[in-house]
Amino acid sequence: MSQNKKSCSRFAVFLFQCKQTGKMWLHTRLKKPIASMLVWIGIIFRAFGSKTRGLDFVLKGRRVAEVKSAHSVIRKIIHNDKAVEEFAPLSPKKPKRSIEIYQKRILILKIPTIKDNEVVEKGALIIKFTEVFIPLFNALNLRQLTKYFRVILEPSWVGYALPEILLWSSIGKEKVIVFSPYADDFNLLSACASNLTPITIGPADWVDTSKFYVMPEQEKVYDSIYMANFNPIKRVERYIRAVHRISKKQPNYKAALILAGHGQAKEDVLATLDCYNQNSAIDVFQSLPATSINEIFNKSKVNILVSLREGANKGLAEGFFANTPALLMRESAGGNYLHINEKSGRIYDDADLEEGLLWFSQHYADFSAREWAMSHISPSESSKKLSAHLKEIELSEGRQWTEDLFVKVNRPELLYLHPKNNWLLEKREAFLMLFSQTDNEQAIIDFINELSATMKAV
Question: Which of 6, 198, 324, 393 has the most CB atoms around its CB within 10 Å?
């Protein structure tokens, strides 16, 4: 490469780092004033009659940070029964698609019990990924669905001030369970005091433990590992620079970086690697299968997360089951804080990342991440927690609870932990068609009775 091209490349990397630093400031030190400004602009717009535009500002501001006045606006809309009128115009407009397309995004977690055409024990249905909440909200007969099934929503990302989630407050008193591992989202739904019921379980509580496990006698090759993609919010360049700085003091420091193929900053990240990896040892892997990822976890001393926003990062939890502790950046907005403790890892300020990485390279053996994870966030334990939560609701509403939920895993799509339940996967298309905008109650009862009979025979 010519000297001129090298200079151009370094300049491009410098510009990328400046942009990333700006985003860091926006997501940390400036997020509260920005959130307040957006919310108050929205309130002013609404006061002068521009309700939809104003609500858009309010919701955007509330997704940035907690603003109490936003809670008041949202709660008033919900309790005045105007959720559909107010939130629907702001919901994403996507081309109409066949309902069968969404079957991989739902899972029957429990079959209802019906006696004399009455529901004595509700079933449970989970819907995964925020992008499908609105299509299914619009396509399904929610009156019939919630009569027979408790709906559980598993959002994709932090920031629940979204029409996709808040519209579900319009279905009346029927409680909808919403996975809310991030405290800010939990607080928002709690402040709304609606049928949207938050629970601190999240996407990272359903790791497929058959894919992530300890490989005995595996040597620790890497001092650290980061699993990310090319989305700028993942801040891969921060990890690269940290390893580069450490390598100047500790030349034998070796790092691993696993990258999924998606994300708009691919050229910038690869250019950063090219600039910094000449004097540091970072092994880069792209789009690996779960078996290979598990092997690299087993070879690593610490698994890190330095992104600015997450849902609840599955990568950290997957590492736990390989007995790899976690280093979480304090500035990260997401649900992973619930998983960090004296057995599983540590939290560091972004400014102290290098210090933390060096500390873990010497003290990784002090942790017992897998032991803690198996006892607290394995699919079976998470299912017990969710079952207990639903049981309390069902008993309080006068129905019985005799069977706990089927155990699910995220791979990343919804699947069952136990293969004996896989026959239900073939029933999802029929389920969606039956509960689409129809009102054939007898057909629904016959379908549920068929499921119950098959389950007893399995």
Answer: 324
